[in-house]
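ugh ok fine here u go
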Amino acid sequence: MSRAFVKEGEGAEGEPLAELQISPHRNLVTAAGLAQIHGNVERLRSELSAAREGGDRDALQRVQRDLRYWSARQSTAELVLPPAPGGKARFGSVVRLEGAGGMALTYRIVGEDEADPAAEKISYVSPIGRALIGRTAGDKVRLRAGVAEVVAIE
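structure:
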């Protein structure tokens, strides 16, 4: 195969896979985020054994890379206890917003590896996360879709 059709850093033709980038931000995690990291490490250890037994070099390379990433994340994880309801929004808070026309939005502020916008979980270092931290009920927040009001912090 011509090198012109091979993605760089994808482990083609014996080349090593590109390392997964570790964020420069503190690795703050919720209890669920810490459990997710532990689960990823355990799963990858099992996959590593299977790849070694099966002699699958491509899988072995991918799993070793992923295990390095998740092991590093596990070693730097800083568990943050859940905040008390009310008060100011902070890491771990669930923030309920109301936008124009009564549009309701809910976000839980979590760590980077736990973030899943489709599940209403946003990273504390994301633009929305940064805009929400420190806010209280009644505050206005500028979002990409317009201005919203913080109606509750849980």
